[in-house]
Amino acid sequence: MDISESYSQVIKLVDEFCDEHFNEERIRQWIESRGVPNSLYDAFFGSELGSYVMPVNAGGRACPFDERVAVTMQLTRRAGATLPFLSDMISMALLSTMRSLSQREIAEDLLPRSGRVTFSQAFSEEAAGSDASAVKTVVSLESDEIVLDGRKTFVSNGQFASDTLVLASDPIFGRADGGLSLWLVPLDTQGVSTFPLNTVGQEMLAPAMISFDRVVLDPKWQIQSEGKLASMLKRQYELGRILVCASSLGLARAAMDDALGHAASHMVKGRRLSSLPQIQEKLADMEVRLRSMESLVYHAAKLAGDGGDEARLACALMKRFVPKAATDVASEALQIFGGAGYTDETRVGRIWQDCRGNQIAQGTDEIMVDLIAKLLVSEAVRDGA
Amino acid sequence: MDISESYSQVIKLVDEFCDEHFNEERIRQWIESRGVPNSLYDAFFGSELGSYVMPVNAGGRACPFDERVAVTMQLTRRAGATLPFLSDMISMALLSTMRSLSQREIAEDLLPRSGRVTFSQAFSEEAAGSDASAVKTVVSLESDEIVLDGRKTFVSNGQFASDTLVLASDPIFGRADGGLSLWLVPLDTQGVSTFPLNTVGQEMLAPAMISFDRVVLDPKWQIQSEGKLASMLKRQYELGRILVCASSLGLARAAMDDALGHAASHMVKGRRLSSLPQIQEKLADMEVRLRSMESLVYHAAKLAGDGGDEARLACALMKRFVPKAATDVASEALQIFGGAGYTDETRVGRIWQDCRGNQIAQGTDEIMVDLIAKLLVSEAVRDGA
Amino acid sequence: MDISESYSQVIKLVDEFCDEHFNEERIRQWIESRGVPNSLYDAFFGSELGSYVMPVNAGGRACPFDERVAVTMQLTRRAGATLPFLSDMISMALLSTMRSLSQREIAEDLLPRSGRVTFSQAFSEEAAGSDASAVKTVVSLESDEIVLDGRKTFVSNGQFASDTLVLASDPIFGRADGGLSLWLVPLDTQGVSTFPLNTVGQEMLAPAMISFDRVVLDPKWQIQSEGKLASMLKRQYELGRILVCASSLGLARAAMDDALGHAASHMVKGRRLSSLPQIQEKLADMEVRLRSMESLVYHAAKLAGDGGDEARLACALMKRFVPKAATDVASEALQIFGGAGYTDETRVGRIWQDCRGNQIAQGTDEIMVDLIAKLLVSEAVRDGA
Amino acid sequence: MDISESYSQVIKLVDEFCDEHFNEERIRQWIESRGVPNSLYDAFFGSELGSYVMPVNAGGRACPFDERVAVTMQLTRRAGATLPFLSDMISMALLSTMRSLSQREIAEDLLPRSGRVTFSQAFSEEAAGSDASAVKTVVSLESDEIVLDGRKTFVSNGQFASDTLVLASDPIFGRADGGLSLWLVPLDTQGVSTFPLNTVGQEMLAPAMISFDRVVLDPKWQIQSEGKLASMLKRQYELGRILVCASSLGLARAAMDDALGHAASHMVKGRRLSSLPQIQEKLADMEVRLRSMESLVYHAAKLAGDGGDEARLACALMKRFVPKAATDVASEALQIFGGAGYTDETRVGRIWQDCRGNQIAQGTDEIMVDLIAKLLVSEAVRDGA
Fold first, then answer.
1. What is d(CA B185, CA C105) in angstroms, rounded to the nearest whole number?
2. Are B151 and B126 in contact (CB under 8 A)?
């Protein structure tokens, strides 16, 4: 297909890496241990592939964002599971949004060491999701001390990264940023507690809940955003959503790969599964969905850099459609396997569970719908004028 | 609502039982240990409720089948999880199909002791699902010995029940039944091995794979079906499907209960969740689905006894629609919870995983669609004549 | 099926009537001439069937509302088209809501003559739909004259009925009714103009736009609602919605009848259409939808009298689901016919066009969703308390 | 959006043409008179636009097929109706498949005069649709005369074109082509009768039924296909499907344009329609569908030339998805307009009816599904090997 052709070079690099390092047994071990071994990271960033993932200001390749998206997609497709690399990619996207900050040393301190990002992102809250304006974790001043209180959730790798980047409601230091500020808090600070989240899937992301109970902040920990935090966050969510959808696409492609392989090789009552019209219908509609997903993901990825309305629209439409469509494709694949799809004899059940999480990650439907409608209407009004 | 009113008495009994014996912590323990403690069975069958579940020929109440269905539904709704009682109910349905067998002593030996059924049902095979004609586990004669070979899957409670009832392809003893026969095989027979299945959900059913490797059968173990096996199996699948759909309905109702409770009590940006139009739309469409499910389940249950075409049609239409609709309802509930729905902080994630299994259990869509179309067309032709 | 069995007696009456009076050629003539001949009305109300339709206070049978619903459904099913009787049934429902009014003579004057209702209902407005609070047609006082201004749309039979019942915003005479009043305006009053609406379907309803341009009202024309207008309207919309959904159900059943007949009798490449899995799948899913529709319609009809929350909820859930589901069923039937379904060689194309209108008639989705959510949540809160 | 940017030049040409020649009143007249006036054809082919539509061997521009597709899409979008140009484009696609025929003079005789194609295509039959192998119109030899018998349907412009190109089952002259042959029959030949088809929509295509009752054929009328008929037909259906889907896309875009304009400018209870979440949700999901449609249509169009498996797969996936999605988009637009959408006060009702026809035109779902599954599986097997 044409889309994969455009990225055939990076996809070939990914395939070579996966041929050497991935197999189903290892994937299962990594899922069970909620993460991949350091040696895998070393191999990854030691290979040419690493340069596609590292931020440019840390020696990464100056490739367009859609190539990074293709890498995320294909890695996930080959693994048939949500990889921790997704979290690293999102963190690196965050770093790329900080390029213009003057407080350079802090930004550099955040840089990944041998690829593995050393900080987690504590952005989401239970009632807030990806909605920055609803943040309740709060910074206050108490007798000359800066104090942080609140609770963050779905912090990928939150128990293991040495530092966590906290987005806080902050009427004092966040004035220039509409009452928000960003702090890089060492996990061993007093008052910081982490709890693993038992999720339905996506175990390798090792999501955690982190609570901050009267945590005293060092002023140096604040990321000086200089009034650019809002645009930084907007850009960060945009890139994060694209990467999450790339992961969904990879998962759905993995499910399709398995379903096709199964349908082509299994017989029911003397007929090949793939010759049964009801199975054929599922396969046809899965492929239609996959191609629609692909076109939405890569279109959003190509526009990701430009910050304009069309980029925002493309991203929101993608997030609205892709994660749900991926779950649907995985569910149909599971059905094609029948009973075996519902057990760990196959990976489609796990894929289905992983897919579901991305319907929530990085922003709810509600936000997307509102944004989409506004952009469509303003475009229509402009065109009609 | 009117349907629950018709069953208000048994539902009240179930509620009293659940108030006393169920709570979320226990449910989680039972899920983890893949089954409920014996004491719960004792309490259940020691209560008036037990009489609604026991087969009539073992002292059970002579109530219509739809009351048993209501019990299954409400127990599941209260637990928010697939209960092992479902498997017992299905086994008891099987026993009820054996009423007319002459070999009375065997049938009686199969009866449950204090409610807990002592045998598992080894019917499904990997490529066969619920399709009896595709059974590959086979009985043969080798130098005067009756030998069983093959592999059964999705045997609920298959590792723990002392005996398993095996449906086999059997050109010798199954001649009167079109080449099928039924054997009650003790689990400790040589050549019988059991393996737990790690499923996506429904852990309390403790499904197992059982392999039969040159297992020598005692002729006395055969259930004398006297040419009635086909109609027995047909009836058994019909009752089994209705009970599975009752369980799906209970799961979906549990998800709806939770979603309504959450939407009514949580705020987003100062607005109650239940006042947001997108949430309202989800709730409305979930309730429409639930009522459609209810009407299909209870309609099938009411006709279940009569063995006619309308009963078969009602059952097939129900199985085609209900399990998928339940998964959809659970998925929407999960979405209403957002991130918390994807973790074990809530039970909706688990409910969603449980629901998915019933889209496969007790017969695939393919079989349903074919059966439905034939019955609809023959009805149309008859009416038009 | 059981639902039609409950109404087998009235359905038999309807069938006898239709056998004598309906055939496809006549139906087409009626559609073309936007209405049925008076002789058909005479025959209808001369038969026993008429007593099921006439209001009780005009000699009609004191039958439960669901029997009237069954009559509407079956008449529509047999015609395969939206009949003008639907409009009469809705008007009679309106009359039944006026039972308690003291101004008896006016109410009686509204009574149908030999069944054909003599007034049309001018309720809807372009921007208001069935939302009474948005009514813009307004009553004012100008130098002692009562003046009506505004424009009503989708007035069934609006050009032909001698009088039209106008719902108006009215700060003067409608004070007791929250600013609304109801006037029976003769069509030949100066300033009243009617225009036919060319609709996509439902031609026999002969919908019209009626404009009121400084129309001087006679005070005697006002229906004295005595503060009961709101509850009257609420009840009227409830009954109207149920009848519209009964019509949708009849249309969808007609489409299913035709699709089954076609699939059972036509061959493609030597195979009967009804044996092709993709056709079978359509038929199965159509029947599931039809049964869900039936259960929602008759459930709402049975509760229609009681005015409680459950009745309102049942009605709103029905309106949310049934008209859309009917269009879907008709569309699938059309597809089964292929090209012939898209021409007037069959009636399924027309049925599909008729169905679409009911997705709009008698209240939009938006209103339903809001109402449903509120009722569900308040029920949940009550149960949980 | 990027897709329209790629074609911005031709789209600008189309817009200029439409600004000058199209308005809603004219469109309605053309629909009523089942075709456009000759003067419009003259203007079209007198403009630069004509060169994008004429076949290359008749002086047309040697542009890639996707540019022609863009022209079809935009013309349809601007008209908000299926234009007769669609039929001309399909006929020209047919001519382009004849390029390699040796019987050059006949092929040239088929060429359009001033753009308007002078022949109609009599391919479809009632039970055959676009399935060539089921053709029943048959050529036979009777005492030295070549005789044609049968009935063709959905012949666009079938009553008005002077000649019709008939695809026939032909065991005599069609031997080299697997029993099929192609004849250009003058409409005034004895035994040829035409009947207009009253379709649900698409009136400008003026579809007709043509019956051939013992029509004597002149041997010179046969198109010498030299064994290439099968590949010619395959290519012709491929191009035809793409053009039909381009028309669907144009129709759906027109519906979206109207819906956005309406939602942006109308108020309900003091709130702009476009700010209501339920309307926003519709708009968002419509745009997602439109972009998926666009990507499938243009992808198929770009590959259309190459004749390989990927081109066939892209075309089948497109035909499976696009026409249905277009109807869905149009239906949502209609719903946003409410009652006005169901009348001829707007064009969305007509668009919805037009869209429906393309779900049937140029090949059923059944054929698509089978083809898609085979191509997907063979690709999967190849990749896996």
1. 83
2. yes
Do A373 and D284 make contact, defined as CB atoms within 8 angstroms? Answer: yes
What does the alpha-carbon distance between residue D100 and residue D228 come to, in Å, rounded to a whole number?
9
Q: What element of type H or E holds D212?
A: strand D208-217
Cα–Cα distance measured from residue A365 to residue B338, given in angstroms and rounded to the nearest whole number: 10
Assess contact for B151 and B209: CB atoms under 8 A: yes
> CA distances (Å), B105 to each of A302, B53, B110, B186, in order?
74, 21, 9, 16
How far from B318 is each of A183, B6, D328, CA to CA, in Å? 55, 20, 27
Q: Residue B272 carries which DSSP code?
A: E
Q: Which residues of D touch C244 (CB under 8 A)?
A: none
Return the ∠ at Cα A108 (arms to A105 and A114), rounded to 5°.
Answer: 150
Query: Between chains, do D341 and C357 touch, taking CB under 8 Å as contact?
Result: no
Angle between helix A309-337 and helix A229-265 axes, rounded to 10 deg: 30
Taking CA atoms, what residue in D is nearest to B276? Answer: D277
Angle at A241 between CA A240 and CA A242, to 5 degrees: 90
Would you tell me the crossing angle of helices D309-337 and D348-358 to the nearest 10 degrees? 150
Query: Around Cβ C141, how many Cβ atoms within 10 Å?
Result: 11
Give CA–CA dist D70/D87, Å, rounded.
15
Facing residue for D198 by CB, picked from C127, C278, C343: C343
- Judged by DSSP in three states, A266 sits in coil
Is residue C147 less than 8 Å (CB to CB) from chain D? no
Residues 6+ apart with CB under 8 A from D116: D38, D41, D45, D88
Which contiguous run of DSSP H or E holds residue C193? strand C192-196
Q: What is the ipTM of this complex?
A: 0.94
B4 and chain C in contact, CB less than 8 A: no
B310 Cβ under 8 Å from any chain C Cβ:
yes
Residues of D in contact with A303 (CB under 8 A): 2
D267 shares contact with chain C (CB less than 8 Å): yes
Under a CB-based contact definition with an 8 Å cutoff, are residues B155 and B208 in contact? yes
Chain A 16-75, residues with CB within 8 Å of chain B CB atoms: none
Q: State both tokens at A78.
A: 């080959």
pLDDT tens string, chain D, 385 residues long: the values are 456 678 999 999 999 999 999 999 999 999 999 999 989 988 998 898 888 877 776 677 888 999 999 999 999 999 999 999 998 888 888 877 775 554 555 556 666 555 566 789 999 998 765 566 789 999 999 999 999 999 999 999 999 888 999 999 999 999 999 999 999 999 999 999 999 999 999 999 999 999 999 999 999 999 888 788 888 888 888 999 999 999 999 999 999 999 999 999 998 878 899 999 999 999 999 999 999 999 999 999 999 977 789 999 999 999 999 999 999 999 999 999 999 999 999 999 999 999 999 999 888 777 899 999 999 999 888 877 5
**Kind and range of the H or E run holding A139:** strand A138-142
How crowded is the C-beta side of D368, counted as CA atoms within 13 Å? 29
Residue among B230, B234, B227 nearest B311 (CA): B234
From the CA of C268, how many Å to the nearest CA of chain D?
7
CB contact under 8 A, B278 and D276: no
Give dist(CA A47, CA A36) in Å, integer: 17
B269 to A134: CB separation less than 8 angstroms, yes or no: yes
C-beta of residue D330 within 8 angstroms of C-beta of residue D352: yes
CA-to-CA distance for A93 and A98, rounded, in angstroms? Answer: 9
Q: Is A310 on the interface with D (CB under 8 A)?
A: yes
Q: How far apart (Å, rounded) are the C-alpha atoms in residues A268 and C32?
A: 53
CA B303, B329, A279, B369: dihedral to nearest 10 degrees? 20
State the DSSP H helix or E strand holding residue D271, giving kind and residue range, or none if neither.
Answer: strand D271-272
- Are C335 and D359 contacting, i.e. CB atoms less than 8 angstroms apart? yes
